[in-house]
Design brief:
The protein is of the alpha/beta class. It has 2 domains: 171 residues, Spore Coat Polysaccharide Biosynthesis Protein SpsA, Chain A (Alpha-Beta Complex); 97 residues, Alpha Horseshoe (Serine Threonine Protein Phosphatase 5, Tetratricopeptide repeat). Helix content is 40%, strand content 19%. The radius of gyration is 20 Å and the shape is globular.
Length: 284
């Protein structure tokens, strides 16, 4: 069956449900522990998972890739400690059919249902299911993603959507989210310092600052935009249209003429937004 890859630290309250949700379809659970001091490692081991300890370096991709390198099944499913795989007879059959020789796919997007603090829900999809031993690894120290690796392997087509769903409850807890935003901000600042020419890093820093009502947000978003429109490969960056929307919305609050100019430059540089996304999704 599947290798299930997880990372976490001090997740004793939520990891039992995550482990139980994959028990029916997982041949192994590889859990990368980044420094737990509670019962997380014991819980994982008692559930039959393999714990691999990893010194935290403010790099989520490094931790996730450490786990991927230890997976032995032909297919890997990535879930987080605050997520649960939503299984039914149809999804179990889909997982079994992954291993048939007639299946020529190498990766799938998986639907994720987010439960929000206000009681609402929202859906998105992310690349969480993929073949092992193809050289697919996560990129970016935060908001880590497989999208770029998948795109380099096959840039001409959209990924299929797996007949799987994941429930994510992490957004339901405001206090935890506050700590998460502060942690993310620290990593993002280091990322743009280490990679000052990376438009995606500036974009994510701008979004985080905007969420905190920080006036420096617009400068970061504008920096991302200026870096992106000068790149020959700008059309391979799936966030470009969202960047343009967020930046123009932000600018409209103070300078509508500048917002209009940026909108025109963006449309000229990026072209018409497609009806379908290429591939997308990164960890939030």
């Amino acid at each position: 069956m599947l290798s299930v890859a997880m990372i976490g630290k001090n997740e004793e309250t939520c990891v039992p449900a995550a482990l139980d949700s994959v028990r029916q379809v997982a041949s192994e659970v590889i859990f990368v522990d980044t420094g737990s001091t509670d019962n997380t490692k014991k819980i994982v081991t008692q559930a039959g998972g393999r714990v691999s300890e990893f010194d935290w370096t403010d790099d989520f991709s490094a931790a996730r890739n450490h786990g991927l390198q230890r997976c032995t099944s032909k297919w890997i499913l990535v879930i987080d400690c605050d997520e649960q795989l939503m299984l039914n007879s149809r999804s179990v059959r889909f997982i079994k059919e992954l291993f048939l020789t007639t299946n020529l796919e190498f990766a799938y997007e998986v639907k994720i249902k987010n439960y929000l603090a206000n009681g609402a829900t929202e859906w998105h999809s992310n690349i969480r299911l993929f073949r092992n031993n193809l050289g697919l690894f996560f990129e970016n120290p935060i908001h880590e993603t497989l999208s770029d690796a998948v795109f380099r392997r096959n840039p001409t087509r959209l990924l299929p959507l797996a007949e799987l769903s994941i429930a994510h409850s992490g957004y339901k807890f405001p206090e935890r989210n506050s700590r998460k935003r502060q942690r993310n901000l620290t990593i993002l600042k280091k990322w743009v310092n280490d990679s000052p020419e990376n438009p995606f890093a500036w974009y994510k820093l701008g979004l985080t600052l905007r969420g905190n009502d920080n006036p420096k947000a617009v400068a970061c978003l504008f920096r991302s935009f200026e870096l992106l429109i000068t790149r020959d490969d700008r059309h391979t960056f799936s966030f470009r249209y969202e960047l343009l929307r967020v930046l123009c919305t932000h600018l409209c609050e103070t300078n509508s003429s500048l917002a209009k100019m940026v909108e025109q430059r963006g449309q000229l540089a990026f072209g018409r937004e497609p009806l379908e996304k290429r591939i997308g999704g990164e960890f939030q």
